[in-house]
Amino acid sequence: MLCLAAFMAMLDVFVVNVAFTGIGASFAGSSLADRHGRKAGFLVGLTVFTVASLGCAVAPGLWWLVAFRVLQAAGAAALTPAGLGLLLTALPPERRAGAVKVWATTSSFAAALGPVVGGALVELSWNWVFLINVPVGVVAFAAAMRLVPESRDESVTRLPDVPDAVVLAVAIGALALGLVKGGEWGWTGAAALGAFGVAVAGFTLLVVRVLRHPAPVVEPALFRVPAFVWANVTALVFCTAFGALFPSVVLWLENVAGYSAIATGVAILPGPLMVPLFAMVGQRLARRLPAGALVAVGNLVFCLGAVMLAWNASAQARFATDVLPGWIVTGVGIGLALPTLMAAATAGLPPAQAATGSAVVNTGRQLGYVLGVAVLVAVLGTLDTPHPRSDDGFRGRVVVHRRCGRSRCRHRARPHTPAADGL
């Protein structure tokens, strides 16, 4: 049941997009869950996420959609760490690592289905992209009421330092803003330096408050666990790379090679399908190899796949030879690295800090996605003109738009590509 909820949350990420609104809220929500009940926090987050999904689907205007999307992110930020915290406390220590791998693999399977489902639903209406969450949320809520045991940390008597979450959100937002707009503003300009300065000041203030506050949003003791620290650092770097790679492949297929939304989803499917398969392979290898060695191998395999994709990138994008091999290799690397990494980061956490510690892990993942997308936008914005806009890379580099039909369209023509039609 907990895996089902994680599946829904990650399906939304890959059906719609990566949102960073919930990063700061995940700290506060998980700390409250540790104190007042992880099941209650999970159910509240699940309810908020499901209702907000319905609100997104029926939103009468753009800003209503934005508002419900923010509410949806807050719900996901509460249910995800609370769910992982429930998983850690419901099982004996010897079974936690395997359970976390199953939980992470379930989320990865959502990454496989997300682009295909999203492409198919968009053909009907964008509203269905959000409506798909509603039945899953209702089933998960009913199952959680019956099956999930309650757990909390009775030793916590103070409310967590909620302003820490606000500081973190502002710092991450400023960092992403500086990366995305730096090319347009000028990397040494006052606006870009101001954004980076706010980010540095925010992260510094967060560290000071965590060390000095009587009830910090994250206990400093967590960072005295070496495996926890280094697993989080590795997850941050790994997810930054993935956060840049995934949308770059989607943009390549849709905007350069001329694939439709549904064809792109089908083309994306084989790579993520490798994740659960090789997560099981990794589970067997973990009996013989240290976790660090297995993660290192997964990282190297992922890098190899990224290099293969970059080497074969072209406007023709022949699926069988240019896209499929490198994409499958990246999926193999993710399957070997990410579930093992998640298990290493959470398996040794003390039960009292299960939800908060898992929130740190998930926040590191989300921060990596944010940085990866921001860096990708920044790089694309430098490709076309001496003084580019940050979004020119998404528009000026486009060489295909077969369905436009407008004489003043900015897209350049290219020869017909049978590979795209074949999908």
Number of helices: 17
Beta strand %: under 5%
Please trace the helix and strand order, writing H or E for each element. HHHHHHHHHHHHHHHHH
Radius of gyration, taken over Cα atoms and rounded to an integer in Å = 21 Å
Determine the fraction of residues in helical runs and give it as a percent range: over 70%
**CATH fold assignment of the largest domain:** Growth Hormone, Chain: A
Secondary-structure-based class equals mainly alpha
Domain module tally: 2
Mean pLDDT: 75
Looking at the overall shape, the CATH architecture of the largest domain is Up-down Bundle
Major sheet: none
Shape descriptor:
globular
CATH top level of the largest domain? Mainly Alpha
End-to-end Cα distance:
35 Å
Give the CATH H-level superfamily of the largest domain: MFS general substrate transporter like domains
List keywords for this structure.
423 residues; disordered C terminus; 0% strand; Growth Hormone, Chain: A; 17 helices; single chain; mainly alpha; globular
What's the SSE blueprint?
Elements (H helix, E strand, L loop, with lengths): L1 H14 L6 H15 L1 H20 L4 H29 L2 H32 L2 H5 L1 H15 L15 H23 L4 H23 L13 H31 L4 H8 L1 H16 L5 H22 L6 H28 L7 H27 L11 H4 L22 H5 L1
Q: What's the short version?
A:
The chain folds into 2 domains: 2-160 and 215-394, Growth Hormone, Chain: A (Up-down Bundle), CATH 1.20.1250.20; 161-214. It is 75% helix and 0% strand. The chain has helices spanning 2-15, 22-36, 38-57, 62-90, 93-124, 127-131, 133-147, 163-185, 190-212, 226-256, 261-268, 270-285, 291-312, 319-346, 354-380, 392-395, 418-422.
